[in-house]
Amino acid sequence: MVEMATGNSPWVSDEMKDFVSKCLIHDPKQRWTAEELLRHPYMVEAEETEESLVQLCSSSKQGKWVSPKSTLESCL
């Protein structure tokens, strides 16, 4: 509904759109390899974000990181 109202996809960055477009190229010779995709700026940013969250959670009061049971649960 947001996209229909605004003409823009909600919560989707240009980097993510570019990443997905590289994955969906029909011609296998033109499609990016897994190695290239892992070096894409979208994946690099996602990895850095994940590492930051793990460090933040592991330095919590408990002193150890506990995996959340749902997407709504956080370690903070």
Automatic annotation (TrEMBL):
Keyword Kinase: yes
MF terms in GO: kinase activity
Keyword Membrane tagged: no
Alphabetical list of InterPro entries matching this protein: Kinase-like_dom_sf, Plant_MAPKKK, Prot_kinase_dom
Residue span, Protein kinase domain: 1-43
SUPFAM superfamilies in the record: Protein kinase-like (PK-like) (SSF56112)
Highest taxon of the lineage: Eukaryota
Keyword terms: Kinase, Transferase
Record protein name field: Mitogen-activated protein kinase kinase 5
